Amino acid sequence: MEAANLSAAAPSVALPSGAGTCSGSPSPSGVVELTPGGAVPPGREASLSVFTVLVVTLLVLLIAATFLWNLLVLVTILRVRAFHRVPHNLVASTAVSDALVAALVMPLSLVSELSAGRRWRLGRSLCHVWISFDVLCCTASIWNVAAIALDRYWTITRHLQYTLRTRRRASALMIALTWALSALIALAPLLFGWGEVYDAQLQRCQVSQELSYAVFSTCGAFYLPLGVVLFVYWKIYKAAKFRFGRRRRPTVLPLPTTRQTRQAPQEAEMVFTARCRPTVAFQASGDSWQEQKEKRAAMMVGILIGVFVLCWIPFFLAELISPLCACSLPPIWKSIFLWLGYSNSFFNPLIYTAFNKNYNDAFRSFFTKQK
Cβ distance 273 to 279 under 8 Å? Predict the structure, then answer.
């Protein structure tokens, strides 16, 4: 999750080698040359400054909203006792990783974006800390999405064997493995000398570009969890379709030859008896509360996975292809792909709270009490 440079989208400023040979128009290479008075053309400067201020404002708002929303989810889970169980511990782990992305990674990435020429002026030590937290938190956020998908898959397909006790153990193991694997990927360059993240001569701070590490990190941080979540959601979709489709089939039940109409509100089920010989009853069951809950959960996981793929796949495709072909994207596209990936930490809490009424009730209760 290397930081690119938004300021590279604006033409750079170059001084000529000979005095008095400057012009006030862009050169064919795209470099804006200084006028003899040392000023950039007024219209150009104004448009660039307005664009820069707008982009910086949007990114600052994204950082603040990401941190506050994930913090609200964490505070709600800690305060409400009903949330002290599975799967809310997986949601809490995701919120922790996303909050750390907003607090430790995105601000320094924004500083790097604003520096001219992508130069890192904060020293080697802070560079190592920033890159390590960048890879650690983003990888943990991605694997937490995979863990939520796995928990939902086992809940639907193995609801008898996947008891509450088993679910607790499985979720605790998935959380531990998520953070352990993320730490291994993040610290590998420091522990094993797997490439260098800081170049003092160029003042550059970026994820190690060693080919073997690029393949290892992108596969471990994205392509492996991507394969897991796509396979899992395909299985969830098949299981849910079979399960709900089987329950909706009308059944023929022998009943006494009496006319009756019965409605059970909680099961949303109606039984109609027709007077005929032999007497039969057509029973059409609607969606029960449990079925509706499972549908919402399956839809939530599907949207969570879809947003995760859309946010991160451009960045990781570029990260894997660039070392393999020894080529590089323009800095502006690196910035777009990077911040699109960061935005996944903003969307995660929105998605898994929007599909859970308990979170909405807890939010309203929390703010009502605060007033």
Answer: yes
Question: Residue 297 CA to chain centroid, in angstroms?
Answer: 17
Query: CA 158 → CA 3, 153, 163, distances in Å?
Result: 42, 8, 9
d(CA 154, CA 306): 20
What pLDDT score was predicted for residue 45? 44
Model confidence pTM above 0.70 = yes
**CB-side exposure of 196: number of CA atoms within 13 Å?**
8
Quick one: angle between helices 344-354 and 124-157, nearest 10? 30
* Residue spans of the chain under pLDDT 50: 4, 7-47, 251-286
Inter-residue contact 35 to 23 (CB < 8 Å): yes
Which regions of the chain does DSSP assign to beta strands (E)? 13-14, 32-33, 198-199, 204-205, 251-254, 261-264, 269-274, 280-285
pLDDT at position 202: 82
Q: For residue 127, count other CB atoms closer than 10 A to its CB.
A: 21
Going by C-alpha positions, the residue among 180, 176, 126, 114 that lies closest to residue 335 is 114
The sign of the dihedral angle between the CA atoms of 80, 85, 91, 97 is positive
Task: Quote the CA–CA distance of 300 and 364 in Å, as a whole number.
Answer: 21
Dihedral, CA of residue 73, residue 77, residue 78 and residue 83, to nearest 10: 180
- Provide the token pair at 354: 């929007």
pLDDT of residue 192: 87
Select from 117, 10, 104, 175 the least CA-distant residue to 342: 104
